Amino acid sequence: MKGKIFITSVFLAMIVFISACGGGGDDDSSDVTHCPPTITAGSDKDVEENQIVILSAGNVSWCGSANFLWKQTDGTAVVLNNPTSMSSAGFTAPKVSIGKLSETLTFRFSLTDSNGQSAAAVVKVNVYRTGFLIQNVELSKFYDKIPNTALCDEGFIKVSEKQKVLDKINAIRSLHKLPAVDYDSGNDMNTAKAALMIAANNETNHQPGAGAYCATDAGRYALSKSNLYIHAYQSAADLQDSLMPLIFFLKDENSENSGQRRALLDPFLKSVSFGRVDGKTRVENYWNATGIALMLQSNPTADMSGIGIGFIAYPFEDYPKEYFAAGRDYFSFSVLTDYKSSANNKAVDFSGASVRVSDDAGNAVLVHGVSFDNLFYGLPNLLKWKAETIVENVFYTVSIQNVIIKNESRNFEYRFRLK
After folding, report:
1. Quick check: helix, strand or coil at residue 212?
2. pTM for the complete prediction?
3. What range does the domain containing 413 cover?
4. What is the DSSP letter of 156?
5. CATH number of the domain residue 174 falls in
6. pLDDT tens for residues 148-196?
7. Is 279 exposed, middle or buried (0-12, 13-18, 19+ CB in 10 A)?
8. 48-97: pLDDT as tens digits
9. Count: domains in the chain
10. Cα separation of 238 and 138, whole Å?
């Protein structure tokens, strides 16, 4: 006679003898011969050390009677709690060994029926250090639907999170006397797919290869047109706020051309779209990652004559100290000469320009690393340098001389103070 049981808990090193219900006899011989046993061991699990683990198996079927065996085949040995209970058997996840970030325990679930037929399945438990796994309660402040990188599901970021990002971008732009920008919800799917690719592949790549995980045309499109950011971490306590990447883009300390800063402070910028995905990376699955894609769309022929300022300087006037690190971050200066064509602002020549930074007493600050370019990142002209010994809450004057614009030499001067 056929038997079927749904195993609700997985047992380690435990043999259970089960007989199918019924009286048997000649009428059952056909059933026994033609019903090979089937068995499943449930889904693999991710847990943290010291966590109580209950492993649920799937449907199990057999004929006649059967012997069942759960056996650990790999990993640090664990002690089964309530080994004779079929509803609540489990174990406590062990501590991860020193020098490792995670460890995998493997269990084999097998049965042999009274007809000599057998079946087996394997389930794995990945044990991570305490605090490594992201819990939904910690991610729910960012998402209406939590992403799942294993399923290539980007989830849904909260509207309030997008609004917070937009507000911060406009607050940063206001420090430079630049106009506010709008939110572009039409590109949200693209930036979400791009953020998913960043998190899944554990990299920021504007042109990822053919073998990239969770790759889509929408994601590739946004990757090619966005500021990108990744934060890899082990503990959920290290989750970052969505505003952190904006400061990263503004400081842009690892860039030779300050392209991310220039895109953020582009006078012709009209709209932004923000994508965020948190999840386990697919290439190094002991890491969690936050992937960020910020698409910045400009209108290079818009009329910006109402801007009221002829240059973009960083830092400028009273400036939050957390937005700039003297000696590490580059100062930058771009000239806005044509208010109706972004491209025409390429006609600025810094090749003979000089830079002086001094305090209110006239004491000069050491300036070094001066360079310039006319690349098309935001405004297509940029002068940058570094300066040491900038003191907080002290006004400094920046004097830039001999900037050639349309064959004429011009000088610029402005002040800043880090607060």
Report:
1. coil
2. 0.77
3. 305-418
4. E
5. 3.40.33.10
6. 998 999 999 999 999 999 999 999 999 999 999 999 999 999 999 999 9
7. buried
8. 999 999 877 777 888 888 887 878 899 999 987 776 555 556 899 999 88
9. 3
10. 11
